[in-house]
Specification:
about 180 residues; 2 domains; five-stranded parallel sheet; Rossmann fold
Length: about 180
C-alpha cells in the first residue's frame, strides 16, 4: 500500500529533493510551498497554516502517513521565526489527527543550521510560550540591533569557540551562495 506524505518546502531545495525521492519510491506526495505545489500557502501567516490543514484533510480524506516539515527561510527578518518555528509547529499540530489515522505515522522536522547560532532569549521565550507576536517583535528587535552578526562574531572571538579555525565564514544572508550558484558546491 502506498504511503501518503506531506512535504513542506517542496518547491525547492531539500524539500523538493525529498518529495522527488518519495515519488520515485511510489509514495503519494502532497507538496506544500509558496508556489508550484499541490498546496500553495504561506506558512508565515496564520491563515496559510490553517489553509494547509484544511487542504491536506481534503486531499487525503483525513488520513496521512507522514509529514516532512522542510519549509524554512534563513534571513535576518521576523519571517524566519514565523516560518521556521510557528509554521512547523502549526503544520505538525494541525496534521496530527490525520497522522493518527494513518499507517505507521511519522513526522520529521528539518531545521536550519541557524539553530546552532547563539539564540536571543526573548525570541526563544516567545516561541516556547507559543506567543507569536512576542517572538516576532523580539526577532525584529534583534534585526534592528544587528544581533545576528554581532553575536556570531562575539562567539567566534570568544573562549567557547575552540573548533573553528582557518575558515572563511560568510555572514551575508546567503548572498554568496546565490551569487556563486550550484556549480561551486
Amino acid at each position: 500500500m502506498s504511503r501518503t506524505y506531506v512535504v513542506t518546502g517542496a518547491a525547492s531545495g531539500i524539500g523538493r529533493a525529498t518529495a522527488e525521492l518519495l515519488l520515485d519510491q511510489g509514495a503519494t506526495v502532497i507538496g506544500v510551498d509558496l508556489k508550484d505545489t499541490e498546496v500553495t500557502v504561506d506558512l508565515a501567516a496564520r491563515a496559510g497554516r490553517e489553509e494547509l490543514v484544511d487542504r491536506v484533510r481534503e486531499l487525503t480524506g483525513g488520513r496521512l502517513d507522514a509529514v516532512v516539515a522542510c519549509a524554512g527561510v534563513s534571513r535576518r527578518d521576523p519571517r524566519t521565526v514565523r516560518v521556521n518555528f510557528f509554521g512547523a509547529v502549526a503544520t505538525l499540530t494541525g496534521l496530527r489527527p490525520l497522522l493518527a489515522a494513518g499507517t505507521n505515522p511519522a513526522a520529521v522536522v528539518v531545521d536550519s543550521v541557524a539553530c546552532l547560532h547563539p539564540a536571543d532569549p526573548a525570541i526563544v521565550a516567545g516561541c516556547l510560550a507559543a506567543d507569536e507576536p512576542a517572538a516576532v517583535t523580539a526577532a525584529q528587535a534583534a534585526v534592528d540591533r544587528g544581533a545576528g552578526q554581532l553575536l556570531y562574531l562575539a562567539w567566534l572571538a570568544g573562549p567557547h569557540n575552540s573548533h573553528v579555525t582557518g575558515q572563511v565564514i560568510f555572514v551575508d544572508g546567503g548572498a554568496d551562495a546565490v551569487l556563486r550558484g550550484d556549480s561551486v558546491w
